[in-house]
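Discussion board: Methods & Data

I've been asked by a reviewer to show the raw model output for two of the constructs in my manuscript, not just the figures. I'm not sure how much to include, so I'm pasting the format here to get opinions. Each protein appears as its amino acid sequence followed by a line of discrete structure tokens. Is this the kind of thing reviewers expect to see in a supplement, or should I convert it first? Here is construct A:
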Amino acid sequence: MFRNRLEAGRRLAERLEYLRGQDVVVLGLPRGGVPVAAEVAAALDAPLDVCLVRKLGVPYQPELGMGAIGEDGVRVINQEVLRGTGVSPDDLHLVEERERRVLHDRAARYRGATPPVSVAGRTAVVVDDGVATGSTARVACRIARARGAARIVLAVPVAPRDFARRLGGDADDMVCLENPWDFAAVGQFYGDFTQVEDEEVTACLRRAASRHRHSAGARSTDREVTVTAGGTRLGGRLTLPDGATGVVAFAHGSGSSRHSPRNRFVAEGLHRAGLGTLLFDLLTDAEEADRGNVFDIPLLAGRLLAATRWLREEPDAEGLALGYFGASTGAAAALWAAAEPDARPAAVVSRGGRPDLAGPRLAEVTAPTLLVVGGADPLVLELNREAQIRLPCENRLEIVPRATHLFEEPGTLERVTELARDWFTDHMAPAHV
């Protein structure tokens, strides 16, 4: 019936055209439902978010759902499947416990620290690539209802003929393109039903956020700014490409400033990838004269936290996911700040950093962290290896061959830029407009 999910999404969008112009939020069910939902959101010119739901598969037949769980503690159990399969309460508990861990990990990957898009008082269009037992769709509808959606429309390309009965009234309206008599599984009605990976989900979210920011009138900016930290005024430069989907705050190393040529080189690479940057001075000229300030990591981290608050209140950066890029001692400041509950960066990258100077704060970092070190910088490399062991978050250590501490060798800073770009674009799922 459908060549692939993109075609299914376009056809579904045509059926939902009556919603265009209304206050709509499209919620895709990861992972397969998100490419379908992205087509619907584009056609309706509506924001796109994920509705995180996990099927509870029968232990010896995982494709058969015995229920589903979702965000906000929502849970649906299919008693009919439980009775038919003889799954014990203990087995059900083990499956649910495992799927809740996956749910938590997916939330961190897709949204970072960004809260879900608000559906309160709006029409929530819940989209999947198809409905089989209906458990995941019911959970998604209940999540939207619990979050205050005024109306819920469940929209799928294909479902069994009795899918309305299976939904049990959890949706206010149901749209389905095909209800075949011979329904056995969703995949049988797609020519290409290749498994959707996490990278495709985050790419759909980034593209949707960029498109929606364009339609909302977001424009590029490149200007000098002043960040206030307590009573201290710090100079900076905010650069946001047209349609930026995230912004990275830079924390420079000792003896450097917002004019650091190496950080500016990396920043320009991020701009080409559609990411904004804030380069700012961690210290005033007078403060830099005191060598103790340069290695005062709590002070530097406090300045980065002040910049974080400033960014979140800056109209031009409203709704953008936030990342940290730290170099040398600035990397320690970035990790120290990332451990603060109100910081919530979506990702951190350290270039030739001294993460060891973050001390006990390393154990409190939850943001995905990339450590980039030169292969010809043995002391710092060893310090990063030791710090990596102490990081409880998703992390990776990348060694750039032949690079010394400042990455001055030909091609090495280009490699740092590529690594940082990929890490941020993979992990900084956009905030929603």
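Construct B, same format:
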Amino acid sequence: MIRVLVAEDQSAVRAGLVLILRSAPGIEVAGEAEDGQRAVDLARDLRPDVVLMDVRMPRLDGVSATRQIVAEQLADVLVLTTFDFDAYVFGALRAGAAGFLLKSAEADDLIDAVRTVARGEGIVAPAVTRRLIAEFAAASAREATVDPAVLDTLTRREREVLSCLGEGLSNAGIAEQLDMAEGTVKTHVSRLLGKLGLRSRVQAAVLARELMR
């Protein structure tokens, strides 16, 4: 059972999200939060698998809430965003969000996204993700230049996996491309995140894009 905490300040939207999630087999709504601070408090108390997090909320915004939840390893965070010119999403990714979802997504896409993040695959909707990663990498490149030497700690296989993450591939996609077992891919992803000091596979994808510029 995947336990989800829904954090959304608009009650009507939150009710709709809860209704969709409760209709899906294998998913349980563990709690609801109307602002970012409440989301952090409930994440500490309930320890859900996934927090569905709106970025624009009162008291504590979704980016700050995501940063706290990820830092304390309370749950994986799936960010809700309108995406278009939404600078908040970049902050959420820097904070370690596991993935993102457009607010305009269909019910099936919402359910699939939650399940994807719960499996440990933070990249949702590959076509949109590639665009997001490209924009985020471009923004990061204006702030600082990534030193390719950071890759020296990685094995050849880990570098190949990192490259695939930069292409927006899921674990299954990486396994197929590199002719590996999916479980082995998960191990490589976990190890390279640790070696590079990153919080999420989305951050790893951004790093890969920057290094491939």
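Answer (T.O., handling editor elsewhere):
This is acceptable in a supplement if you add a one-line summary per construct. For B, something like: The two ends are 41 Å apart (CA to CA).
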